[in-house]
Amino acid sequence: MYQMVSVTCILFIHAALYRYLEMTFFYYYNLLAAFIGVLILIYIRKLTFQQIEPFINLYQVFKSLFLFMYAVCFWEKTPIAFFWFFLIPFFSMNIYSQRSAIYWILYTFILIALTIVCSGYIQKLPVYKYIVVFPSNGIVLINVFALISILYLFALGNYFSRKIHTMNITGTEAIYEEENDRHIYDFSDEQNNENDEKMKKLYGEILDYFQEYEPFRRPDFSTTHLANALDTNVTYISKSVRFNANTSFTTFVNRYRIGLVKELIDNNELEKHSLLYVYTSAGFKHQSTFNKVFKQIEGITPTEYVKGKAEKDSDDFHD
């Protein structure tokens, strides 16, 4: 959200700059993009993080296409036109998993290559010389505003990235403390009761969220995702799970995953799909991790569970 607000504000500022430089096409181009940004912000302002997340990819594509047109017209005048592109993978690394961020990096380099290739064809269009007119002092001002904007967005992204990292560390420390000291709440009885009620309320929200969205199906699901979705922080998430379920957040999530695996097996999904499909559908990346977690929670291996289920079905059939 902070990225979208900042980008929208910068678009308005650059629209004003192009108005001052009498570059009419880019004035309206930035102004249109800014108003689209405002409409998007109005639409998503009351949505939960879970509801917003699917639209992030679309927003990234919209932003990249806007920058593509900008770079095609500017890259021969100033290399700073390419610097805007690197904001895409930079913000992607703060939002997506490492694999997804790599895809966005590759996408960015493809856009840069296409910019160089396509610019020659676009510049041959008759309308090009009328819409792309640079005043004598235009490039200097454009470069200054662009550098300030890019550095600001990088600094802002780095700040929030560090903040999220700190939240994750804090959440991890909270889990460690709770595992070694169950009496973590050193408050008066009244404060304890109030805090307990907050932990119970938050836990209820967690259960409702898991029931409705099944976020544990995502392999990269973490306390950060859940904290964003419930508008809280990772420390409270970890404390609430520990207080109410008497376990760590990781185990809490894995119980849901194993429960889903068992449900799929009980519904005879293995007759239509492989075990790989079953455990990846539940959020596990690797079979070794799945086997280990299943044994820890159920006390038997997945193979033993499947065998026991087959024997039970056979006995039911003969009965």
Sum this structure up briefly:
This protein is 78% helix and 0% strand. The protein has helices at 2-20, 24-44, 49-74, 80-83, 87-95, 98-122, 128-131, 138-180, 189-213, 223-229, 234-245, 249-266, 275-281, 287-298, 302-318.
Please name the defining characteristics of this protein.
Arc Repressor Mutant, subunit A; mainly alpha; 319 residues
Secondary-structure topology with pairs:
Elements: H1 2-20, H2 24-44, H3 49-74, H4 80-83, H5 87-95, H6 98-122, H7 128-131, H8 138-180, H9 189-213, H10 223-229, H11 234-245, H12 249-266, H13 275-281, H14 287-298, H15 302-318
Helix pairs in contact: 1-2, 1-8, 3-6, 5-6, 5-8, 8-11, 9-11, 10-11
Report strand %: under 5%
Tell me the total number of β-strands: 0
In which range does the helix fraction lie?
over 70%
Low-confidence stretches: 165-189
- Please identify the oligomeric state: single chain
Q: What's the gyration radius in Å?
A: 26 Å
| Number of structural units classed as domains | 3
Task: Provide the residue-averaged pLDDT.
Answer: 79
User: What does the main sheet amount to?
Assistant: none
Measured distance between first and last alpha carbons: 60 Å
Shape: elongated
